[in-house]
Amino acid sequence: MVTYMTLPFLKEVALDLVSRFGDDLKDLALIFNNKRPELYFKQYLAEILQKPIWSPSFFTIQDFFKAGSPLLEADKISQIVCLHECYVQLLTEQQQEPLNIDRFFPIAETILSDFAQLDYDLVDPGAIYQEIHDLAEIEKQFQFLTAEQVTFLESFWKSFHQYGQLQLREKFIQLWKIMPRLYVDFTRSLHEQGWTTLAGIYRSMATDLTTGSSLTASFKQLIFIGFNAINNAEGTLFNYWQEQGKALFYFDADAYYVEDNLQEAGYFIRKNRNRWQLKNALGPFPDHLKSKTNAINLVEASGFTAQAKVLHSLLPQVPTEKSIAILLADESLLIPTLQSIPEQLTSNITMGFPLSQSPLFGFIDLWLKTQTNYHETKSDTIAYQAIESYVSHPLVMLPLSEKEQLLQDIQEHHYVQVPNLALQKYTHVASFFKKQDEPLLLIRALEELLRRIFNHRKESKQLTLIEASLLTSTLQELNHLFDSIQQHRSLQQADIRFLITLIRRHLFQVNAAIEGDPLKGIQIMGLLESRNLDFEEIYLLGANDGMLPKRSFGNTYIPDAIRRAYGLPVLENQEALSAYLFYRLLQRTKKLHVVYNHLVDDNSTGEVTRFVKQLAFESNFSCSTLKQQQETKSAKQPLPLTIPKTGRVAETLAAYLDQGGLKISATALTNYIQSPLLFFFKHVARIQEPEVLAEDFQVNKIGSIVHQVMQWFYEELKVESAWITAERIKDKRPALPSLCLKALSIVVYHDKDYLKPEKTNSIEKIILQIVEDYAHIILKTDVAACPFELLELENNEDYVVDFPIQVNGEERWVKLQGIIDRIDQREGIVRIVDYKTGSDGLTYMRNTENLFDPKDPKYNKALIQTLFYTFIYEQKSGKQNVEPHLYTVRKLNNEGSFFQSDQQPLRGEKLNALKAVFIEQLRETLQELFNPDIPFQHRPDMILPYHDLYQEFFRAYGFPDTSLES
Prior knowledge:
Layout: H1 9-21, E1 28-32, H2 36-49, E2 57-60, H3 61-67, E3 72-73, H4 76-93, H5 101-120, H6 125-141, H7 147-161, H8 168-192, E4 195-196, H9 198-207, H10 213-216, E5 221-225, H11 232-243, E6 247-250, H12 255-258, H13 267-274, H14 288-291, E7 295-302, H15 306-309, H16 311-314, E8 324-328, H17 334-340, E9 347-354, H18 359-377, E10 381-383, H19 384-391, H20 400-413, E11 417-419, H21 427-432, H22 439-459, H23 465-487, H24 489-492, H25 496-508, E12 511-514, E13 522-526, E14 537-541, H26 560-565, H27 571-585, E15 591-597, H28 610-618, E16 622-630, E17 642-643, H29 647-654, E18 664-665, H30 666-674, H31 676-684, H32 697-700, H33 702-720, E19 723-724, H34 726-732, H35 736-749, H36 762-785, E20 788-793, E21 800-807, E22 810-817, E23 822-826, E24 829-836, H37 861-877, E25 883-888, H38 889-895, E26 900-901, E27 904-905, H39 908-929, E28 936-937, H40 950-956
Parallel strand pairs: 1-2, 1-5, 3-4, 5-6, 7-15, 7-16, 8-13, 8-14, 9-13, 14-15, 18-22, 24-25
Antiparallel strand pairs: 9-12, 10-11, 17-28, 19-20, 20-23, 21-22, 23-24, 26-27
Helix pairs in contact: 1-2, 4-5, 4-8, 5-9, 6-8, 9-11, 18-25, 22-23, 30-31, 30-37, 33-35, 33-36, 34-36, 35-36, 36-38
InterPro entries: P-loop_NTPase, PDDEXK-like_dom_sf, PDDEXK_AddAB-type
Organism: Olivibacter ginsenosidimutans
Protein name: PD-(D/E)XK nuclease family protein
């Protein structure tokens, strides 16, 4: 036996095997805990022997055990179906009503996991389930359970309650009684079909040590390399084979944590040595860590993805011969990690690329959600957001013209729910959104969509290695799922929504192998995959406490107290494994960088793993900390833009003066008050805000619908007579539902006959009810004001006046235009009535010296607009003492329609005084607007509605792009 303390662990093992067996290795079985070390080990053998030899046999521990069983391992779906069949039979015998398979599925996964753990650790199911049953009975009657036991029981019942099975607690307590028999029946049923489980193979071999004798007889020696945590079945077999002189064990560990009973990292190695009497073939463990004084480089990253971004500056900038690994304690960092490695460096993903983190999964998930929606809503319509997501997806092959036409159709018809029929002329879109009703056809339809993507990307030479691997792996998984469903009638008869969930769960677990050269370049892997491997330089990402080690345990229905009593794994075992994985990184590496997120949020403790703190306290390792810049958000910041009134801007402004033809409306005025730059965008550059299709009609459509309803309501009354009485309003009220339907049709779909009462969807029904309620509120106020005379309804042409201002010392005229909702006369007083469905208020500031100041907390935009209408009407009609009234529907019942200050209504002399202030400030504001020396400038405290289009605006007006930089 030779010890090579400074060499990589696998090279030490290779050297020792050559010293024992020479080059006659063909009859050895080399068994690892995963496949990753095999390639490295072969390389070390080649370096040592320098000649061709007959290779030993290589296995993972799982493959080795499977090779020794006459039965095949059943796939997960077959196991669940078999378990459900046994469960149904047992409950039928008990005269209890069983759950159907879609409700049983999530329960079955946990039961199977528990069954497997019992097999791995050779625990008697009858004994342990009797304990659990007794606990459940006690919990029902007594209150002295521990918090831990109560938590277990509550979580168990909760898994049933999600299906609305409120009476299942009592039934399931009874089910615990038959759980041992369920285990036996399930095992027997699998065997009858020539199947078993992997854990069942372990139990079978460990309880009958002769079971695998034909397998072990094929080899001169079994070589177990790099094992740490082993279960009872493995321990039993390992001990037996060692006693038979058949097995050698090579443990990768350091005396620093093995010989110290307080070190959790050595827990399993000590257990292997003490309980199972396993001997380390390399002799006493080396003591590397005790004497090492290396510095651990801690990197504080400010944010989740910032942990990966630090790689760009930490990694070497040119290819190197050094062995480098990036280990992910948090494997969700894979994508940002790949994006952060300098392009000139080669890398190899040994952990596999998760489908769930790829654009392909977004495509699949959108399709699955659409199919689910069809079956949940019993509708053939698609939410417009789903269509927008589809046409904008990077993998969709939709021609640009077809995409633009489709989105235009949606916008023009204001489809919130798009009828399936409306998609038929768009072939690609219609095939994606086609409803599937049969389980097997569901899978075939998805396969066809994915093959189309594959072929198109390949033909257009856009197919990447990652895409090809992901598509291939996904199609393989779907084909396997198809075979499983085809094999089991109960799945074919299950609710199709369950099958959709099943597809998503399966695909969520797909990891595509995307391997380069695992012996060269930067190796990217999960922490668990690093077992047995040594690297000169290591970058450990996601090393937060709570992630390393994790603070949660896998799903189980076996309480912690019972797990401890029966020697089953508990949370401390998981922590011991994490500690081992971390400490062994330090044994041979020359440089370790530990990167963690120091920001505290829902997913981050903000603390580095406690293993680093332990080392800093107890060892000779030192820690140096590097702080990275805080991760920046992509939020858009206000742009401090200044637009001079020259060139085309001046030409456009001139068109508002004298006989230029352009008019200033109340909206234009309040836009300028809010922000001069906003006025420029809307009324000079003439760029409309991008229309946003929103499900919340209250934001941008209800107001227009209400205005249209009230316009039609009073137009029809005015045809007969302008004199409005309470009786006439009451008699006309039954017409409201019809008017609301027509108004919704014309405002949303541009056709007043588009909607029929029986064809409205749920959202439209809600909107109709809201509009009708709002109309009743307005009419209730009008009934109280009756009788009154209607003088004018909405008029787009007649109310325009010339308003004098001074520009460069000269008198110029601005055309002011008012579009007034309603003008009526009551008790000799003319009223301007403006309808509002938003949150506009009636109060305004006491000090009116700056009525137009938008920063004043009581600045009232609605007051400015109604005073604007009042001024124009008085100028055109010659009437005086006209009152502005605001019908803010949400407040109308409680607050009335008068503007007020200090709870005094705005009328009489108070109103006349305010009108004079308004006219003076209106003149000052318009003179500022048209003053060529005062540029349009944005008020940074105001939010503009369209930020993304700045570049378009300014290119159109000839400004250089540099003027847009913030």
